[in-house]
Amino acid sequence: MKTVIVCKGAVMDETAITMRGIRAGYGATTVLHGITARVPRARVTALVGHNGSGKSTLLGVLAGTLAPTAGTVERSGGGGRPALVLQHTDVPAALPMTVRDAVAMGRWAHRGRWRPLTRHDRTVVADCMERVGVTGLARRQLGELSGGQYQRVLIAQGLAQRSDLLLLDEPGAGLDQDARRRILEIFAELVADDGVTIVHATHDADAAGRADHRLLLKNGRLLTGEAPPEAPPETAQR
User: Fold this and answer.
1) pTM for the whole thing?
2) Which of the residues 7, 182, 223, 232 has an alpha carbon 20 to 30 A from that of 91?
């Protein structure tokens, strides 16, 4: 039986990501079991489920950092590689690095680690800091930031990759209510102003409720979502 998409507002007829029969895991352990779903373009999708349900694993598959053992992921549209924002980044908060330097790391995907930033890169970094409200913190050390400020810096770093697909793993974890609310406001602005597609894993009922679309996972299986249309025979055989 075809399940029903959970969304708000108008029917979403544009798809950013189509997943068919995704199986994935680590070593001999399978975490995801036959995930078939769609992610709507320029909307916020919440991945909901308890710890161990497969949310982080699915984000890794969508980001391309974890290869599925079966199934396909089809992404439509441009925007370069997906931008993945983790709770624990490669930039520890204790590292002697400024906010501006941390956000500039998002340009490495375009410039490489050792090539100096161009004027365009610096403009992108400044714009991303302004979008998430950390411009006034540009010269601050990461270790001086609050949890909410640090999470906004990580989001700015993801935005600096200039991708049309932003993936986030529990962006509100450990933050107070005001900080979580501000992150959700940033999501809404990115969707409305830039057409960014956002997928974020969350335990927060309010964050899930404010998403345009929700995928509920349990034990690596999808409980709610919408199955994509059948692939053409020549595609299905690949």
Assistant:
1) 0.82
2) 182
